[in-house]
Amino acid sequence: MTAENSSTEQTTIGLGVLVGYDGSEHAARALEYGAEEATRRNLALTVVCAYIAPAMFYANLASMPVENGQDTSRRAVEKLLVEAAELLPDHAGKVSYRAEQGDATGVLRDLSAHASAAVVGSRGRGGFIGRLLGSVSTALPAHAHCPTIVVPGHRPETSNAPIVAAVDGSDSGSLAMFAAAEVASSRGTALEIVCVLPRGEEWLYWYPELELSSEVTDRRSKELEAGLEVQAAAVAQQFPDLKVSAVVSIGDPTEVIAEKTKAAALTVLGTRGRGPASSALLGSVSRGVLHHAQGPVMIVPS
């Protein structure tokens, strides 16, 4: 296996399913998931390892090493790509391996313009190994040109599990819903559309002058259910063979959706919702779910 050099010609072709690999346990899980996804979609698999050449300073020519820092870094990632290839002994589809110079997030962001999906592990080999979410898996979903799937290190049992789409009435949520429907249809599994209504107590903390009651909550919940039925009907019309269900839950949106990730084959969200920071690249709910997810999460760009 030989790592490909980066070039304009190579990045203009379809990269299929793009996987970021750094040799970590989470990256190995992402690679496995990405290979499965490429097989399901009948697409090529592109495995990418990024490196940054360290800036080195030497007192004189005699102290300079025979091999410069860039060559050393590239050799290291090429070794990682060989390890990645050894993790895919039974993958029958087309696979290419790329050693790319640059920041990992920036490299994957640029390549994502030519991919159908990008897959990364929830944590990598950075210095903050105890963090809930790594720097690449935090930044890439907000900047990628294609949907980003973030895969946790462990693999839950998801046999015949549904695809879950989280919606909130926004355009971003609608895009995520139809992307989730396409995934569910291709896998032959059910789609569950979820909308979460925040508890009244959370609003009363900030707006104590409001008079919220169970009747108000029930009425709003029924309104949302009626809206979800319309959305579910639109999905069913486009995907007639797809089993679609819709549910309105009451609670903290991040907590409810993160709990859904335990049993879902894939949980799908948009980058932004209807919150006050609608101009943010990645909304607070999407970001929070990524931090606490216990199953794969796909973020669909607006």
Helix content: 40-55%
| H/I helix tally | 10
Write out the CATH superfamily name of the largest domain: HUPs
What oligomeric state is this? single chain
* CATH-derived topology of the largest domain: Rossmann fold
Radius of gyration: 22 Å
CATH architecture of the largest domain: 3-Layer(aba) Sandwich
Number of strand segments: 10
Q: In percent, how much strand structure appears in the residues?
A: 15-25%
Low-pLDDT segments, ≥5 res: 5-12, 126-132, 204-209, 275-280
Side by side, the strands of the main sheet go: 3-2-1-4-5-10-9-6-7-8
| Secondary-structure-derived class | alpha/beta
Can you tell me the number of structural domains? Answer: 2
- Report the top-level CATH class of the largest domain: Alpha Beta
Pfam family, one: Usp
InterPro entries: Rossmann-like_a/b/a_fold (IPR014729), Universal_stress_UspA (IPR006015), UspA (IPR006016)
Organism: Brevibacterium aurantiacum
Family: Belongs to the universal stress protein A family.
Description of the structure:
- With 302 residues, this protein is of the alpha/beta class.
- It has 2 domains: 8-151, HUPs (Rossmann fold); 163-300, 3-Layer(aba) Sandwich (Rossmann fold).
- 41% of the residues lie in helices and 19% in strands.
- It is built from 10 helices and 10 strands.
- A 10-stranded mixed β-sheet has the order 3-2-1-4-5-10-9-6-7-8, sandwiched between helices.
- Helix 2 (25-41) links the parallel strand 1 (16-20) and strand 2.
- Helix 4 packs parallel to helix 5 (135-143) and helix 9 (253-260) packs across helix 10.
- The chain is elongated, with a radius of gyration of 22 Å.
- The relative contact order is 0.14.
- The model is unreliable at 5-12, 126-132, 204-209 and 275-280 (pLDDT under 50).
- Residues 17-152, 162-301 form the UspA domain.
- It comes from Brevibacterium aurantiacum.
- Pfam families: Usp.
- Belongs to the universal stress protein A family.
- This is Nucleotide-binding universal stress protein, UspA family.
